[in-house]
Write a structure and sequence with these properties.
426 residues, alpha/beta, Aminopeptidase, Aminopeptidase i, Domain 2, 2 domains, nine-stranded mixed beta sheet, 20 strands, globular
């Protein structure tokens, strides 16, 4: 698969992220792109009838999605070529009984989701995005992309040590977001209802994420960098989806799996630790006539690429990195290693991915975390363990991971799309 035009790929990524301010929106955006390319939507509650070469996708919980193209070769002989990523990002989530008044100011109570850099939410134009369940049984996506909320800093005159000690917030008492001056008859629920065009009494429940209203952008002298929210990990979702949509004829069955709840451990019905991917694989096997023996043969011949962003070397903080494993932004896709299986990469799967990079004509890098720092993990070890499938953990390098506004390399994104295309076709 030829390397995509880097700026075109980067701009399309920014459009994808701007349209996906929450995991539910990310699935909706992916769904639209799949339908536009002729994919058939399946329902978990119905029986599946699949045909060779067919293109399908299924969602679970509105925030996880698995799409696949049935290969020309028998599944038991060729196995699966699968890429996995996650739709969620760390941040702030609105509590069920969030709106409250404090000294004449209306505030919105929030809960910390995953491990965001909380200081990056301060003094930003914040909106809301997520899903709302209505009394009539329907579910509506909500995206208020205008400046609605704010987390104002305390003036330095009252926080003299902020530049030396860092900006910190008490998660219970100092994170509620300011919504407005309290007025009779004014409520946050009414704000949500107005945005949806419904009556406030019609709203039963919600799952809402706080989002930045600033759109993603290219930056740098040659626009060689990307700045946006949710690059971790919608950049990987977009790259995998772009590679899948470029698949014409596939010999092996090509699969892309996007999971929610990675940032909080993946142990949920829609997370990588749940049954979603195993259920889909079992149903593909059943629909293509495989018995249990052949299903296990297919898994043994499969290959899984777990795609999640990597820590790019930051020249201002060299002591934070393992000196021999500095990976450079715009230096190419990164293969991630950890001896304690925080990443699923083995020598065999690393070698296989290197071969894919060479075939795609893109550079590659290898990353290991400092030994004296705790290493994060991915869906790679989880899915590999559940399916018994050879797996490699990869990702593009980035700066400010888990900030409200992250940065990455525009040149790397097209390269990742290219090597993912090779992974699905191999």
């Amino acid at each position: 698969m030829p390397t995509a035009d880097p700026i075109q790929s980067a701009r399309d990524l920014l459009d994808y992220i701007d349209a996906s301010p929450s995991p539910w929106h990310a699935v909706a955006t992916s769904r639209q792109r799949l339908l536009a390319r002729g994919y058939t939507e399946l329902e978990e509650t119905q029986r599946w009838s699949l045909t060779s070469g067919g293109r399908y996708f299924v969602t679970r919980g509105d925030s996880s999605l698995i799409a696949f193209v049935l290969g020309q070769q028998p599944l038991a002989e060729s196995g699966l070529r699968m890429i996995g990523a996650h739709t969620d990002s760390p941040g702030l989530r609105v509590k069920p009984k969030a709106p409250h008044t404090c000294d004449g100011v209306m505030r919105l109570g929030v809960e910390v989701y995953g491990g965001p850099i909380l200081a990056t939410f301060a003094d930003r134009d914040l909106g809301l995005a997520g899903r709302v369940h209505l009394r009539d049984g329907t579910v509506r996506l909500l995206h208020i992309d205008k400046p609605l909320l704010r987390l104002p800093n305390l003036a330095i005159h009252m926080n003299r040590e902020v530049n030396e000690s860092g900006l910190k917030f008490n998660k219970q008492t100092e994170l509620p977001l300011l919504l407005g001056i309290a007025e009779e008859g004014k409520s946050a629920e009414q704000v949500f209802a107005t945005a949806l065009g419904v009556d406030g009494n019609d709203i039963l429940s919600w799952e809402l994420a706080v989002c930045d209203t600033q759109k993603g952008s290219l930056w740098g002298p040659q626009e060689e960098f990307i700045a946006s929210s949710r690059l971790d990990n919608l950049a990987s979702c977009h790259a995998a989806l772009s590679a899948l949509l470029a698949v014409d004829q596939s010999q092996a069955t090509a699969v892309c799996a996007f999971f929610d709840h990675e940032e909080v451990g993946s142990e949920s019905a829609v997370g990588a630790g749940g049954s979603f991917v195993a259920d889909v694989v079992a149903r593909i096997a059943a629909a293509t006539g495989l018995d249990e023996e052949d299903r296990r043969r297919a898994l043994a011949k499969s290959f899984f690429v777990s795609a999640d962003m990597a820590h790019g070397w930051h020249p201002n903080f060299p002591a934070a990195y393992e000196p021999q494993h500095r990976v450079m932004v715009n230096g190419g896709p990164v293969i991630k290693h950890n001896a304690n299986q925080r990443y699923s990469t083995g020598a065999d799967t690393a070698a296989r991915f290197i071969g894919l990079c060479e075939k795609a004509g893109v550079p590659w890098q290898q990353y290991a975390h400092r030994t004296d720092l705790g290493c994060g993990s991915t869906i790679g070890p989880i899915v590999a363990a559940r399916l018994g499938m050879p797996s490699v953990d990869v990702g593009n390098p980035m700066w400010a991971m888990h900030s409200l506004r992250e940065s990455a390399g525009a040149l790397d994104h097209g390269r990742m799309i290219a090597v993912m295309g090779e992974a699905l076709a191999s």
